[in-house]
Design a protein that fits this description.
Layout: E1 9-13, E2 20-24, E3 31-32, E4 39-44, E5 47-50, E6 53-57
Antiparallel strand pairs: 1-2, 1-6, 3-4, 4-5
The protein binds zinc ion.
């Protein structure tokens, strides 16, 4: 298994519908909840803003 500190996956919980979703931590695109379509992650000026609650990093 390759190890890279740059590639992280985050497990987040949607604040609206409590759906659990795995997202890529360095994502530069918008990530929406698959269930309720709420915007969970957005990037502004190269910074990633996570609007959901992260409860696991792996
Ligand atoms: Zn949701």
């Amino acid at each position: 298994m390759e190890s890279s500190s740059k590639s992280r996956f985050l497990k987040v919980k949607c604040p609206r519908c409590a759906n659990h979703q795995v997202i890529f931590g360095k994502s530069t695109t918008k990530v929406k909840c698959k269930k309720c379509n709420k915007l969970l992650v957005r990037s502004t000026g190269g910074k990633t803003k996570i609007k959901a609650s992260v409860y696991e990093v792996f």
